[in-house]
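Lab notebook: predicted structure, single chain.

Context: the supervisor wants predicted structures on file for every construct in the current expression panel, including those that have not yet been purified. This is the next one on the list. No modifications to the sequence; it matches the entry in the shared construct table.
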Amino acid sequence: MTGIIDYDAGNLKSVEKALLSLGEDTIVTRERQALLKADKVILPGVGNFGDAMEKLKIYGLCQVIEEIVEQGTPFLGICLGLQLLFEESEEAPGVPGLGILKGRILRIPEKPGLKIPHIGWNSLKLQNEGRLFQGLGEEPYVYFVHSYYLSADDEGIVKAVTQYGTCIHASVEQGNVFACQFHPEKSSNTGLQILKNFADMA
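Prediction complete. Output recorded below exactly as produced.
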């Protein structure tokens, strides 16, 4: 059973639909016990960093996420879900993130001809043998929708990067914690393979 954390942050249904298409049992919930019992847990999300952290606090989910990570359950953050795992974001100055991983979320720098938000398909450059990317080619194409990007403190946890006005840390893995800035649920067969790789984690 894969638990999808419900904190009113959009795109839950598309993640659930993608998992169901892979034959995965899923539950969309904010119930502590249901999430702690799940074999794997996903934190999706689109929207504002500050608003999302406020919702996680209101629903008592910050501590639940920490417990899930501490007990070793495979955990995947998607898009805003990736950003929330880190310490802070320029989108919401003074609002601390979950701080499970070390790094900052920065605004994509303005450059002539560069549209922000970044919406569309980009190729990834894979590095450091990411487990999410097993069975994929060297430069898989995935779908992004974001105005802010991750700069991780430790390059060793970065498993994929892409270029969009700057070098974007597009996917990270540390222990049982995985995260993608892009949307695997909207990235066609490549994204389904990434979700399947996560679903198959022991």
